Amino acid sequence: MPHTRRNHLDYEALRPQAVALRRAGLSRRQIRDRLHVHNNDILNRLLEGVPAPDWTRRPNAKDDLRERARALRKEGRTYDEIQLELGCSKSSISLWVRDLPKPPPRTPEEASAIARRGWEATLKRRDEERQRTKAEAKREIGALSDRELFIAGVALYWAEGTKDKPYTRREGVTFVNSDPSVIQLYLAWLHLLDVKPERVGYRVMIHRTADVAGAERYWADLVGIDVAALQKTTLKKHNPKTVRKNAGDTYRGCLVIRVLQSADLYRRIEGWWYGIVWGAKRST
After folding, report:
1. Dist. CA 81–CA 117, nearest whole Å
2. Could you please report the per-residue DSSP string of 78-117?
3. How far is CA 122 from the centre of its chain?
């Protein structure tokens, strides 16, 4: 019993000191060390009702979501509508807005309009997440060393370039692709290999129903040559029974890049590729 009385007296004496220290901006740890209170229950009682200083509060990633959820609830949105727009759980929404009045019943037209706005917000949020992930991944790569570019180029050629077969000898370096970023990487690789520009020929391959002249200008600008320097364009005949996805203003066909007098280079590329395969097997 004397022990309990002493603790009560200690609490009564320490409470004003703890409150004063808290209001002066000290953290729980600083107050604990200053008053020599190492029992969390007692410390909680001493600081009960006294808010923590701003500098000790950790930023909460959901603070913005909470405020947006409350704003939407005040507009009369339901839990489903708030969840659709913000992408958070109903349990969290319930905790954030439970003190706000319940919205009145919706007419079918109002419900449809709100659902449409919510879905549009969801699509926007997903696209922002998608772009953020891509941007973060891009930053992870950074600048490439010559060796990294060399290996990337070998793998790219072996995936997309022409290859020699036992039944058809093709010991020449020819690369075909419709992606401008892939073309740019490939040309950077050829430059790394010291392939001179005069050894490189370009040809557009495209469906005859497309904007041929526009495609020729596009590819010539991309690789930095005059349109007149392009070799004769290969026109592919359109099959009306085929439903083509590669159509419209963004369709520019493919660019064919051929390195002249490249049999020796091709053999080296093939050797480099199998060297990469051998190295990968050794590392496992």
Report:
1. 9
2. -HHHHHHHH---HHHHHHHHTTSPPPPPPPHHHHHHHHHH
3. 17
Task: Dig out the tokens for 183 from the structure.
Answer: 């073309």
Q: Which pTM value belongs to this model?
A: 0.63
Cβ–Cβ < 8 Å for 252, 218 = yes
Neighbouring residues of 89: CB distance < 8 A, sequence distance ≥ 6: 83
Annotated domain spans of the chain: 2-56, 63-141, 146-283
Residue 117 has phi, psi (to 5 degrees) of -65, -40
| Per-residue pLDDT tens over the stretch 68-119 | 889 988 888 888 888 877 878 888 898 899 888 888 887 888 778 877 887 8
| Residue written as token pair 């410390």 | 43
CA 259 – CA 246 distance, rounded (Å) = 27
Helix orientation angle between 146-160 and 180-192, rounded to the nearest 10 degrees? 120
